[in-house]
Amino acid sequence: MAIVALAVAVALTILVVAVKLTLDRPTPLIGTPAVPGDQCTAVAGNYTGSMDAEQAGNAAIIAGESIRRGLPPRAATIALVAAWQESGLRNLDHGDRDSVGLFQQRPSQGWGSVEQIMDPWYAAGKFYDALVKVKGWQAISVNDAAQAVQRSGYPNAYGQHESAGRAWASNLTGETQAGVRCLANKGVGGGGDELVALLTKVWGKRLTISTDGKTIAISASSSVTAWAVAQLSMAQLAAHGVTSVQVGAKSWTHSHNGLAAWRDAPTPVKAAQVVVTLR
Question: Residue 212: which domain range?
Fold first, then answer.
C-alpha cells in the first residue's frame, strides 16, 4: 500500500507541475498574426512567386547578369526557372555526380572548375552563353528553353516554376513596377559599398551613383532601369541591410512585422531616380 501511495503522490506532483508550466506560458494575443519569416514576394500581373532571403539574393544576381549582357527579360525568366528546379536557387556545393552551384553545372561536362561554378555570376553567365545558342530560344516554351540548356533527366520539370520565374524576372528587370515586397529581420546589413559594387557590375557607367552616409542616390537612364535598380536592391535586402527604397513618386519602407507595401512618397523624386537607405 505504501508503494501505491507513493506512486499516486508522484503522479499528482507531476500533474501539478505540468499544469503550472502550461499556465505560465505566455498566451498569444487573439487576433495578432505571427510575424512571417524572412521572405520576398514578387507579383507581375497573374504571375507570382515567393522566395526566402538567400534565394532572392541569388535571383538578383541571375537577373543582374542578364541585364549586364543586354538580354531581354525572357532570358532571366528561363534562367530563374532553371535554377529554381536545379538547386532551389541555392548555391549548392554538391549534387548529382559532380554537379554544383545554382544550375548544378558539372565540371566534367565543360562548365568550368568547381571554384568557377560556385561563383553565381560565373554560373549565370555560362547559362546565358548556352541559352543564346539554342535555336529559337525566345519563341519556344520556357520549359523547353531551360531543358535545351540543362539537358535534365526530367525534361518537363521546369514548367512548374514558370509563374514564379516570370514574376521575378519582370520585376528584377524593371518591366513591372512596385511588385517586390521583402522582409529580412535576420539580414547582416551594413553593405552599402557592396550594394554599390553590385549595381556598378550590372550597369557600369549607365548609372550615376552617389553616397551620403547610409543613403545611396542613383540616377538611371529610364524609369525601367530605375525600377530594376530598386527591386534588385530589395532582393539583396538581407545582405546589405536596405531599410527603404524610393523610385520617382513611390516608396517602400521595411517593416519588422510583415511584407510592407509600396506607397506614395511624401516627397517625389525624378522618375528615373532611386534613393536607397541602409540601416
Answer: 185-279
